[in-house]
Amino acid sequence: DARVTQTPRHKVTEMGQEVTMRCQPILGHNTVFWYRQTMMQGLELLAYFRNRAPLDDSGMPKDRFSAEMPDATLATLKIQPSEPRDSAVYFCASGLVSLDTQYFGPGTRLTVL
Amino acid sequence: SQQGEEDPQALSIQEGENATMNCSYKTSINNLQWYRQNSGRGLVHLILIRSNEREKHSGRLRVTLDTSKKSSSLLITASRAADTASYFCATAHTSGNTPLVFGKGTRLSVIA
What we know:
The structure holds two protein chains of two kinds.
Chain A: E1 5-7, E2 10-13, E3 19-24, E4 31-38, E5 42-50, E6 53-56, E7 65-71, E8 74-79, E9 88-95, E10 103-104, E11 108-112
Parallel strand pairs in A: 2-11
Antiparallel strand pairs in A: 1-3, 3-8, 4-5, 4-9, 5-6, 7-8, 9-10, 9-11
Chain B: E1 5-7, E2 10-14, E3 19-24, E4 31-37, E5 43-50, E6 55-58, E7 61-66, E8 71-76, E9 85-92, E10 101-102, E11 106-111
Parallel strand pairs in B: 2-11
Antiparallel strand pairs in B: 1-3, 3-8, 4-5, 4-9, 6-7, 7-8, 9-10, 9-11
């Protein structure tokens, strides 16, 4: 049963620290998305990759967030420095260009103190 | 900004009853999707309906789409306690698995 995996599942850190979240998309999927979920804002797109190329990162604060796909099996989202307002659940999703369905990972719950 | 807006925000029903959730959106779309999220979990895709379709069924789920009103509804028939979750509509402006714009969801509670 193919699934999107994310690590870590939970992260508690102090303000100013670097946070790295990792995602392993479903093997063979060529689109990858990072979404952030908060009670106030709901689900928001942070970044979008197709065939490992970044297509849209307009949802990310560029001065502190960065998203990369070093290879087809790994996507990373980094926050440096982290701030309390970054506390949220970060989801990775993957899919195929030929199909419009997205498959979500279990999320990383980030708490910045 | 949010594209989809679900209504109601919360819904509580008895097991066996039908649950209807509505979604409205603002701009033209290629497709509209419904996802379910159990507490503390990721989102699970339920059903996709394209802009040229009016109705789709999947098991106990029925989705309608009215592009003239920019609205969709999700009907869950014969609800079960296991259907308790949050339900989100999400819209895509184009095909090709492009980013989805989510509403804030309807929280459904099915009481046994």
